[in-house]
Write a structure and sequence with these properties.
31% strand; six-stranded antiparallel beta sheet; alpha+beta; seven-stranded mixed beta sheet; 40 strands; 814 residues; single chain
Length: 814
């Protein structure tokens, strides 16, 4: 029989060695419980009952994770195991049918008639904490619960780590490998960037000089199979993993081009693919001056070297310096902290760059190694610019070296480090917070741009016209309640709205942010007091000098956006009226829905907004967000609300079919000029009950074998195998065989209700064309329903008689 105490000691010794690789901090092994006390003897026996059947490696893993958190977590001095344990159970409850109760002596886990008890005093010593973790894991195992396809121990530990903060995470071996690939900037693969388009895995971009680039693959080619494994209906994450592999390993991909004759195979060998984190464009301003745009996609190990090289090459290749540099950090999620610091040093001669505050406080400084760049610098950010992006933008803004244009950044002001664990896993743990040179924390706030450009998306419905993630709500840290630092207006902030068409694939050159930067460079060029070669550029002084010109330019964009909204009966004044923000309230709110709200159904949430001020309020909106579950924010623009005026409307909320049973908390609040008013936030809740899982099956039957010139009928039957009715929203039949066959539906499919155990048929006519190369042709069927957690996919093969030998299918005919 294995000794649980020995397992803990194994973990302590292994962890002591492992931590020495990361930190020079002193290591204190966990104390063994005092066996002299009868109380401790009793506890030790109860722990042994729990741990005796656990795998050694699982106990070691749990002990390592708990010890790392206690020693290195940013708020370790406020470590409260019981509070974390309750948060863990809440996380598990959000992913499955787990209930629990707490009294003064114990936490009781429940599932039907099965109960387990965790004494609360177990949280007072190390062995008790490990035993508590395994008590929950064993309960999950006993009730046959799988959380995100993890075993019960991994699921419990993952939920425990996730309860710390939004960024700490227990990484699986695959997650850790992908994280290393992202930070290293290289991996074994084919050099294809892919996405799902019209339910098909599609080539979006080819990396230059990669195996795929040399093989003649084209953007927009559809990938039908990888090494014989069909891609239709598979998840994007799974498909990316299949395409990656060890350098030198073979891969055969089956492709179909738009309007291509037939699918074709290409065999390649994987290579070490390097992702270039930096791209450069040389742009002309409206006055024909020269500018450089540097797009930084991520902060990987190669980011500094590449950015430094591109700037040096650009400066050396011209007689005079460029008239401006744009550093584009939009949609850059961050990466390595040290890369952000090194890139900051390119532009800053002296002063602090960032202060990292954890168990110790460290400040990084510029060291006079900067490049002499005698021109304005503009940094572009948006709501997806995070972490290292915010360190760079914050440092350049605080030192008055760059003008920041765009939208407030994500607001991730914490630092994580990664600890390798046994079996290939890793713990990503928040160990510190960072402060900008001015001493400000951007956690939950973000870097506020000097010129805030609000996009208004052109669309039919008044729903999320300013974006889906504008009022994102991140979970607060334990013992940490960040104070929002954003205020409406401000004497120095320049703000405007502009129209953005989501249907158009705008290039970087066409964006309003880049247009504005290029105009600013023209103003700098003609500035009479511009000193040639002066690298001591002060952004705020320059911006104040050209403020009138900039406001004139963006005012026209603002007017265009206001006119567009006015046509939709939304009065969005050109100049916002900032009255007393404490005078606007949501005075009524409710949920109009059945008592039993099922996943996959729609509910109505009516609200009434009232302005109790004696002056009008403009550019207002109301938003709704989920507190604990993933859901896009829903926002309605209201615009102007007259003195003592009221506004009534409602949200229609689609409850995701993936949501499980339990109480769901929402927040409804008011925003002005795109900034939420904290005093208006109100809570409401709904109860989700389980829906019996809908089960659909797809079968097909063709009237004959397909051949050239012959039309064959095909009936696709979608049967509801479940005991409840289901609404099928959409059925699509995709031709995966190219021009070998013509596919024509007999009438269009209309959404309909399908009774339990009933079926609906979709009929299509298939006509063989002149050139059939294969004896088996493929169609893809996708069935969509808001009551399904994900669409149902089915691959259908049709027997055919080839009219042309396959070896006659030449390269140029693809």
């Amino acid at each position: 029989m294995s000794n649980p105490i020995r397992k803990i000691l194994i973990g302590t010794a292994t962890l002591a060695l492992m931590i020495s690789l990361y930190f020079s901090a002193p290591w204190n092994p966990l104390p063994i419980p005092n066996r002299d006390s009868s109380t401790n003897e009793e506890l030790a026996k109860s722990y042994e009952k729990v741990l005796v059947h656990a795998k050694d490696e699982d106990v070691v893993l749990a002990e390592m994770i708990l010890t790392l958190i206690q020693n290195y977590y940013v708020d370790a001095n406020q470590f409260d195991f019981e509070k974390l344990m309750l948060s863990t159970l809440k996380n598990l409850k959000n992913h499955g049918d787990l209930s629990y109760e707490v009294d003064k002596n114990s936490i009781r886990l429940k599932d039907g008639h099965l109960e387990r008890e965790i004494p609360r005093k177990w949280s007072e010593d190390e062995l008790g904490r490990v035993s508590s973790i395994f008590k929950v894991a064993q309960f999950l195992e006993d009730t046959h619960k799988m959380i995100d396809k993890q075993d019960s121990v991994a699921a419990t530990l993952s939920a425990f780590v996730a309860s710390l903060d939004p960024y700490s995470k227990l990484l699986s071996d695959e997650d850790y490998r992908e994280l290393k690939e992202g930070t290293d900037g290289e991996f074994g693969g084919l050099g294809i960037m892919v996405g799902v388009r019209n339910d098909l895995l599609t080539v979006i971009k080819l990396l230059p000089h990669s195996p795929a680039d040399r093989a003649g693959i084209h953007p927009q080619d559809h990938i039908l199979a990888v090494n014989g494994q069909t891609t239709f209906g598979a998840s994007l994450d799974d498909l990316v993993k299949v395409m990656r592999g060890l350098p030198g390993s073979p891969a055969t991909l089956s492709f179909l081009r738009d309007n291509g004759k037939s699918p074709f195979d290409i065999s390649m060998k994987r290579e070490l693919v390097q992702i270039d984190p930096v791209s450069i464009q040389h742009l002309k301003t409206p006055k024909n001056n020269e500018a450089i745009l540097l797009k930084l996609d991520t902060f990987s190990m190669k980011s500094y070297d590449r950015l430094h090289l591109e700037i040096e090459k650009s400066l050396a290749s011209r007689k005079t310096a460029p008239d401006g540099i744009i550093i584009d950090l939009r949609s850059n999620p961050g990466g390595l902290l040290e890369q952000a610091v090194k890139i900051s040093k390119i532009l800053l001669a002296e002063g602090s760059i960032v202060t990292v505050k954890g168990h110790d406080t460290e400040t990084e400084y510029a060291d006079h190694q900067n490049l002499n760049i005698p021109c304005p610098v503009v940094v572009l950010i948006d709501e997806d610019s995070a972490s290292a992006s915010e360190i760079l933008a914050g440092a350049l803004k605080d030192h008055d070296r760059a003008i920041i244009i765009g939208q407030p950044s994500y607001g991730k002001g914490t630092v994580q480090t990664v600890f390798e664990l046994p079996t290939g896993r890793a713990l990503k743990l928040t160990i510190a917070r960072y402060l900008t040179p001015s001493g400000a924390s951007i956690q939950g706030v973000g870097v506020i741009p000097d010129i805030w450009l609000h996009p208004i998306f052109k669309q039919d419905l008044n729903e999320n016209m300013m974006g889906h993630y504008r009022y994102r709500l991140d979970s607060p840290f334990i013992g940490y309640n960040p104070t929002k630092q954003v205020h409406l207006g401000g004497s120095n902030l320049i703000s405007a709205y502009y129209l953005k068409d989501p249907e158009r694939d705008l290039t970087i050159k066409q964006s309003k942010e880049v247009d504005l930067a290029l105009t600013m460079f023209d103003e700098y060029k003609k500035s009479p007091d511009k000193k040639k070669g002066d690298a001591n550029f002060h952004s705020s002084i320059f911006l104040n000098k050209i403020r009138g010109r900039i406001q004139s330019m963006i005012r026209s964009w603002d007017s265009e956006a206001s006119a567009y909204l006015k046509a939709k009966q939304i009065n969005w004044f050109n100049e916002p009226l900032h009255s007393n923000v404490n005078s606007i309230h949501i005075v009524e709110k409710s949920v109009e829905a059945p008592k039993k709200i099922l996943p996959g159904t729609n509910i109505s949430i009516p609200f009434t907004l009232k302005n109790e001020s004696s002056s009008g309020i403009s550019r207002s909106s109301v938003f709704l967000r989920s507190v604990h579950r993933e859901m896009d924010t829903v926002e309605k623009l209201i615009g102007y609300l007259k003195p003592q005026g009221t506004f009534k409307d409602h949200f229609v909320l689609a409850i995701p079919s993936s949501w499980l049973s339990g109480k769901v908390q929402f927040q409804i609040g008011v925003a002005m000029d795109g900034v939420e008013l904290e005093n208006t936030i109100q809570e409401l809740a709904i109860d989700i009950v389980d829906r019996k899982e809908s089960v659909l099956s797809v079968n097909s039957k063709s009237s004959d074998v397909l051949m050239t010139g012959k039309t064959v009928g095909l009936v696709v039957s979608i049967k509801n195998e479940g005991d409840e009715d289901i609404h099928i929203d959409r059925v699509k039949i995709l031709n995966l065989s190219g021009r070998q066959v013509s596919v024509k539906e007999r009438g269009s499919y209309s959404p309909r209700e399908v009774k339990a155990h009933d079926q609906v048929d979709v009929s299509v006519d298939l006509t063989g064309t002149k050139e059939i190369f294969s004896d088996q042709l493929s169609l893809g069927v996708s069935v969509e329903s808001h009551e399904l957690k994900s669409p149902l996919y089915k691959l259908i093969n049709i027997a055919a008689v080839p009219s042309v030998p396959h070896d006659k299918f030449t390269e140029h005919e693809k």
